[in-house]
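Hi R.,

Here's the chain you asked about this morning:
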Amino acid sequence: MLPQNEQPALANVWARMKIASLSAQSIRRPDPELPQAIRQVALDYDLLSSFTAFVAVDSTRRTEETEGTIVPVAVPVPEGVKYKTTVTDH
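And the predicted structure, written out as tokens:
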């Protein structure tokens, strides 16, 4: 692993290339450990990958209570996906 604190821009480029390399390997040779390796590099370097996502948090707003508020957000279901079999109501 490349040290992040010495060359932050270089570390970021290295991590993106590492994710690309691991992703290419997973296409050529399926390996159940590759998704975790990709996920770990992405998390270590704060990058988006096929196995990670960004969550936007508005830190300028506060809820009235001590607990957060759950707000349902409508998300279009991709074509060919059956809503009833993939989405659960909580």
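Residues 1-52 form one domain.

Let me know if you need anything else.
M.
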